[in-house]
Design goal:
three-stranded antiparallel beta sheet; single chain; 3 helices; alpha+beta; Outer Surface Protein A, domain 3
Length: 97
């Protein structure tokens, strides 16, 4: 699980948003993102804590359906975006750890 205090930063080279979806360019690969991942890319352009990102997404799109916790859903999407280089997740390491 990604900590709520972790900072997420968009790591794309370019982005084009149309009708809620986004085309993102990462190095030399273009990917199409649906509405929620596209919103994540836009919200994290300047960096945002995971907890704040989750709150903003729930406010914009509502809570996930079928009893899935918002934290689980946001974490799953962030992990997928990080795997393909669309976002960078900077975990906060407590001092003295």
């Amino acid at each position: 699980m990604i900590d709520d205090e972790a900072r997420v930063v968009t790591a794309v080279d370019d982005v084009l948003v149309r009708n809620g979806e986004a085309l993102v360019l990462v190095v030399c690969e273009v990917m199409l993102l649906s509405e929620i991942p596209a919103a994540m890319v836009q919200l994290c352009a300047e960096g945002m804590r995971v907890g704040e990102l989750r709150e903003r997404l729930v406010a914009q799109f509502g809570a996930p359906a079928h009893g899935v916790a918002a934290a689980e859903r946001v974490t799953a999407i962030l992990e997928e975006l990080a795997k393909v280089g669309i976002v960078r997740i900077d975990q906060i390491v407590p001092s003295g750890a």
